[in-house]
Design a protein that fits this description.
This protein is 44% helix and 14% strand. The chain has 306 residues and is an alpha/beta fold.
């Protein structure tokens, strides 16, 4: 069975096809078309972390495609009492057709994929958030009419979203510059893979420590929270490190005049982004959030049909 644990599990052609399918499903779902590509399928939504958009988008997408979803909170499973992931995986694989996992460790997803025998979709881990980027690329294409040749500036922590964005941007031929404080750079293995992708697609990937340099002429400004779930003990240190790495009206002036602003949400207004910008005319944040539904639908179809 096909799984998507990393955006790197897809070829550039498969990613392009997924984006096209997501755009098509958006039209179909908004028109109220009755779809049945997941008819008879049961999707388990196994979450160790709280979620608004990822959980809701995958559950609704499953229903819109004619399937059934089952929410599995890890604290209500025997995982919370020490059962090994591989034991849980072996059983869930006999009940379900797909598992969407939102987990603390990428290794949990690897074990689910190895021992369940069914498709596993990464709904967020400490390393990547691939389905977020599928919906993000759909949003950028809607806003800009293309992907190749654009410049995306990511301002903030080189976290899981940043890692997956690096892979996605480099696969579609989009230049990407990450501006982050020293010590908060993206995963080095993923950065190397993104640079290799960029060499093939004609794009460029770089990391700098000056937000203004990254934002210069950018078509897209993107940010994420500074303190991710599970990092609460690092809050004070991160608040000091990320001072100056905020997307605000002054930074926006350095970007292209028609630049759009993105945030994967939830947003901490006044920290990584100002209220003025997220609510401003250049923000596509709410369109981005809506598109998680259609990215989820396309991803579910892809693993079921593969």
């Amino acid at each position: 069975m096909r799984s998507i644990l990393s955006l790197g599990d897809l070829s550039s052609a498969e990613l392009d096809s997924l984006l096209g399918r997501a755009a098509h499903l958006k039209k179909e779902i908004k028109q109220g078309t009755e779809l049945d590509s997941l008819k008879g399928k049961v999707v388990g939504v196994l979450f160790e972390k709280p979620s608004t958009r990822t959980r809701t988008s995958f559950e609704v997408a499953t229903l819109r495609l004619g399937g059934h979803s089952l929410y599995l909170a890890s604290n209500e499973l025997q995982l919370s009492r020490g059962e090994p992931v591989k034991d849980t995986a072996r059983i869930l694989g006999r009940y379900l057709d797909v598992i969407v996992g939102r987990v603390y460790s990428q290794d949990t997803l690897r074990q689910l994929a190895e021992f369940s025998g069914i498709s596993i979709i990464n709904g967020l881990s400490d390393t990547e958030h691939p389905t977020q980027i599928i919906s993000d690329l759909l949003t950028i294409k809607e806003a800009k009419g293309k992907l190749k040749g654009l410049k995306l500036a990511f301002i903030g922590d080189g976290d899981n979203v940043c890692n997956s964005l690096l892979l996605g941007a480099s696969m579609v031929g989009m230049d990407m510059v990450v501006a982050c404080p020293a010590g908060y750079t993206p995963n080095p293995d993923i950065l190397r893979l993104a640079q290799a992708n960029a060499a093939k697609s004609g794009a460029s990937v770089s990391v700098v420590h000056d937000p203004k340099r990254a934002a210069a002429g950018a078509d897209i400004l993107y940010t994420d929270v500074w303190v991710s779930m599970g990092e609460e003990k690092e809050r004070d240190r991160k608040m000091r490190a990320f001072k100056g790495f905020q997307i605000n009206s002054n930074l926006l002036k350095h970007a292209a005049k028609d630049a759009v602003v993105m945030h994967c949400l939830p947003a901490h207004r006044g920290l990584e982004i100002t209220d003025e910008v997220i609510e401003g005319r250049q923000s596509v944040v709410w369109q981005q959030g809506e598109n998680k539904l259609y990215g989820a639908a396309a991803t579910l179809e892809f693993v079921v049909k593969s």
